[in-house]
Amino acid sequence: MTEETGRVESRLAYAKLRGSGPGVVFLPGFRSDMQGSKAIALREHCAASGRALLRLDYSGHGTSDGRFEDGTIGQWAADAIAVFDACTEGPQILVGSSMGGWIALLLARARAERIAGIIGIAPAPDFTSELMWPGFTDAQRDEVIERGVLHLPSQYGEPTPITRALIEDGRQHRVLDARIPLACPVRILQGMRDPDVPWQHALRLVDALDSEDVRLHLIKDGDHRLSRPEDLRLLAETLDGLPVQP
User: Fold this and answer.
1) How many folded domains does the chain comprise?
2) Domain extent for 189
3) Per residue in 40-57, pLDDT tens?
4) Is 98 a catalytic residue?
5) Could you give the CA distance from residue 62 to residue 179 in angstroms, rounded to a whole number?
6) With CB atoms counted within 10 Å of each terminal CB, which end of the chain scores lower, N or C?
7) 142 found inside a domain
8) Taken in order 203, 204, 209, 212, is the CA torsion positive or negative?
9) Pick the catalytic residue: 57, 79, 169, 194?
């Protein structure tokens, strides 16, 4: 297995595995990158099956340039579109983890004619306004508004800077308050013990999608990461089970 690595616009890092189509594009989550366990599991699976795969890092993530705290949903969606345009051809299946599920929907809306399917892993569309902001205390909201940034403790490592720009920009890229005009197959894998994205949030996404080919797989003991061996096997099976358009 040989991956091509490089940068788009001299700042956005990617890794590309050549193979048959439809290709697969992995979109990581908030403060995650293309070296995460799900991304690597997809790389191994696609390499074994001879399938094309593109992994990428948004600006301020992984090995891409920029500071995380300067990023917004709109910027990261634009990053994904730039790498998608530069590094893929033909139909593609988008696999988005957490925030990557939101980015996948924005990318798919911009390049609908090239999207053969979407897999959301604990997808978190609109999480800044629907999940994050309502969960803040009044003092935390005041800090975001008045100081411009809140350093939020994280169970995954260093405190996460939540900026006013992130919150305000997120409101401009909401997708759940209107119909999502996508016709491609959509598969959603969602843990019911997810502390970050409640499983009911996935039901809102199912309801908003225009596509009739939407399936939601609830994993009763699943957490947010869905990175256990059995979760990764389910991801591979879900990818392989997507219908291929003639």
Assistant:
1) 1
2) 3-126+179-241
3) 999 999 999 999 999 999
4) yes
5) 33
6) C
7) no
8) positive
9) 194
Q: Which residue has the tokens 């992994």?
A: 55
CATH of the domain at 219: 3.40.50.1820
| 143 part of a folded domain | no
DSSP letters of 55-112?
EE--TTSTTSSS-GGG--HHHHHHHHHHHHHHH--S-EEEEEETHHHHHHHHHHHHSG
Query: pTM of the prediction?
Result: 0.96
Quote the tokens at residue 205. 């996404």
**Distance in angstroms (rounded) separating the CA atoms of residues 204 and 196:** 15
209 located within any domain: yes
Known catalytic membership, residue 224 = yes
Which amino acid would we find at residue 5? T
Write the single-letter amino acid at 78: A
Question: In the chain, which ranges are continuous DSSP H helix?
Answer: 37-49, 73-87, 99-110, 127, 133-135, 138-147, 164-172, 199-208, 229-241
Q: What are phi and psi of 41, to 5 degrees?
A: -65, -40
Q: Please state whether 180 falls in left (phi above 0), alpha (psi between -120 and 50) or beta.
A: beta
Assess if residue 64 is contained within a domain.
yes
Q: For the chain, give the longest Cα–Cα distance.
A: 55
Which residue of the set 57, 61, 224, 231 is catalytic?
A: 224
Cβ atoms of 60 and 69 within 8 Å: the answer is yes
Per-residue pLDDT tens digits for 176-227 = 999 999 999 999 999 999 999 999 999 999 999 999 999 999 999 999 999 9
Told to judge if 211 belongs to the known catalytic residues of this protein, a careful annotator would answer no
Both tokens of residue 12?
Answer: 């956005």
Please answer whether residues 167 and 133 qualify as being in contact, where contact means their C-beta atoms are separated by less than 8 angstroms: yes
